[in-house]
Amino acid sequence: MAERVTLQTIADRVGVSRATVSYAFSRPDQLSEELRARILRVAGELGYAGPNPTARSLRLGRAGALGLIFTETLPYAFADPYSIGFLQGLAVAAEEAAVGLLILQQPPGVQRPEIVRNAVVDAFCVFSLPDGHATLDAVLARRLPTVFVDEPYVPGLPFIGIDELAAAGEVVRHVVDLGHRRLGLALVGLHQDGRHGWADLRRQRSAEYEAMRTRVEGYRVAGEQAGVDWASVPVYEVAGNARESGREAGRALLARDPRPTAILCNTDVMALGVLDAAAEAGLKVPEDLSVVGFSDSGAEEADLTTIRQPKQLIGQTAGRMLLSGLPPEPERLILPHELIVRGSTARAPLPS
Amino acid sequence: MAERVTLQTIADRVGVSRATVSYAFSRPDQLSEELRARILRVAGELGYAGPNPTARSLRLGRAGALGLIFTETLPYAFADPYSIGFLQGLAVAAEEAAVGLLILQQPPGVQRPEIVRNAVVDAFCVFSLPDGHATLDAVLARRLPTVFVDEPYVPGLPFIGIDELAAAGEVVRHVVDLGHRRLGLALVGLHQDGRHGWADLRRQRSAEYEAMRTRVEGYRVAGEQAGVDWASVPVYEVAGNARESGREAGRALLARDPRPTAILCNTDVMALGVLDAAAEAGLKVPEDLSVVGFSDSGAEEADLTTIRQPKQLIGQTAGRMLLSGLPPEPERLILPHELIVRGSTARAPLPS
DNA sequence: GGTTCCTCCTTAATCAATTAAGACCTTAAT
DNA sequence: ATTAAGGTCTTAATTGATTAAGGAGGAACC
Predict the structure, then answer these.
(1) Does B65 contact A91 at a Cβ distance shorter than 8 Å?
(2) Between the CA of A281 and the C1' of D22, what is the distance in angstroms?
(3) Per the database record, which ranges form the HTH lacI-type domain (chains A, B) (predicted)?
(4) What residues of chain A lie within 8 A of the CB of B74, using their CB?
(5) If DSSP codes are grouped into helix, strand and coil, which group holds residue B111?
């Protein structure tokens, strides 16, 4: 029907130049009060929607948005308390800078580099990208300020995360100090192939998610330093970070003979599932079995020993870095973690 | 340092027209393989970031993003399972259409209409907006396809939600059928003023959040139909949808004399807090006290009777409507809810 | 009376692309 | 030989704004 209303439409109708109309919206001091009122009145009559944001962005050279790249579909990402915590932190920074947060999903399987190529943003935050993902190149090609969170760490590119190796080591030393020698691992998110089952050393080392791979490596190194024969430690891997997956892993581990006295998990959600499996098997935690999580997301209510990862702080720091106006430092920024000892770990039961 | 690299830079360097370079990126069939290879090579050498998305958006007239307006800060919104479920649904639709999701926070207190004015999006989804919020005008001024979710319903504008009045009525009839006559209400999100305390009838009726107001009205109407003297029903309101708030409300309600035998909550998170308060007071649920939630978010694990609100479906439907290319129907779309009876409600205890 | 200053508005360049239509050349068909 | 048809590239209009620089006119000052 009616053709598009632009600044020019209004200018023609009022009988002034386009520039004047622009000033009426953005710089009231540049024209008389009377003319400005007339322009705004006509704009209202014509149903003008205000200066077109896309055209504005083009002219001003800023998009007013921060791009967040998830490699999971959102339904999955938002099922994870860790992701949500991170997102909350990022959102704080976005709000401070009065920019929007453009969420870009790179669903696993289908490659959609055009989503990254076409994103109208001023900066990118890349969240937990597996090794060799095509998105890496697509993002770097945009040559915008970019920060990688948790994984991967690419030397020379800005990165924020925790010291996964040290954190995992603390977990192992904690249970070893409590006398545990028969450990079991319940791990999620090592590979993209969706496999559930036992993961041998080769599979542990070839994990595609760097943070998880490092975490596992940290368990191993600390375990071997404490004299644990790592080749004999059962490792059960699952694909989705869900309580039900943790239960499955817990069942498998608890069915082993000898049964582990401590099960280490690489997320809290997994640990909750392991607790379920322990309850099913009639095992008391921590008397019969110690369980450790990772991330401190929802772990408090379950009285779970875990590593506290400053998820909000990570998000906020990433956001502030990107929105400060300065190019982000191309360095590896390590934020502090903390072992939180709660009621899910105790001295190992005496060998029966 | 080096000035910006655009299509023109490459065109000049290769010695062709800008159009040719554009075709090299977007329509390979429009030029010879050999020239295209040369153009791409030069583009690579110059560090060209690919066709500028903003310019592209302007020319093509599409932004490639769906704007989601939250009136809470994200940290708060993401603390609520209902919001997350809705977001998941919306994200499914966004992924289907291969567009991004631009999250626009309109924090309470500060008015930031410019965030809405400057958002580079093709459509808006407005989530749970309180009455009289300035964002309403800012969004309508953009004249983009827009859907309102949950509240407010503005006749003539597209809306998606459930039949709050009927749902609340079902809750009341459920407990009344179980013999309860002494009800108590623990409500969150009626007003923006942050008050915690008893809410009289006037305050109930003046709630600024339409969905919550309607929900309360539904409780009242069904209660009075069942012969409950509504003026004597204690209503405790809190500001933040947190378990701790629910606990506070629960404590207050359970300290009343006579003590309610059934407490109705307008969110599940509140109900969880009421369960905490009941446990503190040494009351058994459901023997001594029946508790009902709302939304079915995290209610299953707590074995909570609640209303199931199809949150994912609401999000998905909203997203599909907006991204279908057709203008959304300016109608009130009511999706089905369901009363889920679980173990938190039982027959009223005999008067002691 | 001339200069200066201020207010109010216009001119025109600029941001970085897309794409229909047309030009030019080569090859094939009649 | 003439026409037609492709293939390859260019021309130029278009998308909707922002803003530095400049001009016209009137008031104030010396």
Answers:
(1) no
(2) 86
(3) 5-60
(4) 87-88, 91-92, 94-95, 101
(5) coil
Which positions of strand C lie within 7 Å of protein CB atoms? 7-12, 14-20
Report which of residues 175-204 in chain A place their beta carbon less than 7 angstroms from any atom of strand D.
none
| Structural contact between residues A71 and A129, judged by C-beta atoms closer than 8 angstroms | yes
Number of H helices, E strands in chain A: 14, 13
Strand partners, A123: A66
Residues 6+ apart with CB under 8 A from A17: A11
Structure tokens at B132: 């009289």
The segments of chain B whose pLDDT lies below 70 read: 1-2, 75, 351-352
Quick: pLDDT tens for B264-301. Answer: 999 999 999 999 999 999 999 999 999 999 998 877 78
Q: Which distant-in-sequence residues (6+ apart) come within 8 Å of B276 by Cβ?
A: B243, B246, B247, B250
**For position A177, which CATH number holds?**
3.40.50.2300
CB atoms within 10 A of CB A13: 15
- Shared domain check, B260 and B294: yes
Same structural domain, B197 and B320: no
- Closest Cα of chain B to A260: distance in Å? 27
B259 burial level (CB within 10 Å; 0-12, 13-18, 19+): middle
